[in-house]
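All the exercises in this workshop are built on plain-text protein records. The record below serves as our worked example for the rest of this section.
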Amino acid sequence: MDGRVLGKSPLTAEGLSPGPHTVVLENELGQVTQRVTIEAGTTASLVVPMTAPRGAPVSGWIAVNAPVDVQLFENERLLGSSQTDRIMVSVGRHELEIVNEALGYRATRTVNVTPGQVSAIKLDLPKAPMALNAVPWAEAWVDGERVGETPIGGVSVSIGPHEVVFRHPELGERRVVTTVTLAAPAKVSVDMRKK
């Protein structure tokens, strides 16, 4: 009111001087300016419908870019998953919980959705440890990157699926696909002598 923030409606403003005042109301759909005249000893009431203009979109979308599948919840209600191109939601602020139960992953994000627009969420997954071993020994690669000679402990990788390749000069090569979670350290072990 008159350039001063009073708070969220509905509210009663006390101690206003008699005379004309300018009231600005705003929400995610826009802003409305009204003039009101206060008379001494009375209470003026102002009701302003805050609706979208005719034909204006009142929804938008959320799109999640994640290296693994995640589900989106709002107030414990499933909205959709990252497998969907985009999820339609109402305009405004959304408190989301992003979950992948199998990986032990949970994160919260706040997203402001604007009318007719896509609000993108990009997830960078946390890292977790992985231990590698081969009998009698082997060189190890994780996702095509050499990490050393076994035994190797504490290789830090993002949660999710990874391909581990073990190579021994005489015993050949073994490929293992493993899923790293936040629940417990991943351990990958192979016996290079077995065919």
